[in-house]
Amino acid sequence: MDDQTYRQLLEEFLNRYWGAFHEALEAQSVTPTRLAGSLFEDLCAAHETFTALYRGRHKGVLTSLDRVWSNLRARRAIQPDPPFHADEVARAHEGFRRLYEELAAEGSRHPAVMEQVLRTARHGTPLSPLRADAAM
Fold this sequence. Notes:
- This protein is mainly alpha-helical.
- The protein has one domain: Four Helix Bundle (Hemerythrin (Met), subunit A).
- It has 5 helices and no strands.
- The protein has helices at about 5-30, 35-55, 60-80, 85-105, 110-120.
- α1 runs antiparallel to α4 (about 85-105).
- The chain is globular, with a radius of gyration of 15 Å.
């Protein structure tokens, strides 16, 4: 993987996919009884985009994340804007951690790129504690 490909993948992961999940959690911390459809759709779109780009060894993690999003989508057919359940947050967070650990290991081959992307990542990384609300 060259620097440009690594940059694109890491930025897509941190700024779009992890970022969409983190923003959904932040919004749910403000309104715990619901998760806005637009945030959920952004998360699903980011999942699809990252899945198309990702060529790493943790494809099974993406399948697991897809199940979390599918379960929530099924609940949305019954209840408008249902929130994440605690177990879904935990499973998703674990999946994001595993993906990030692989991307960070690859970053040892692209240290300058990784440093620059991490410096500008608005939502940090999945290794950091989850923040309920970034405004706090």
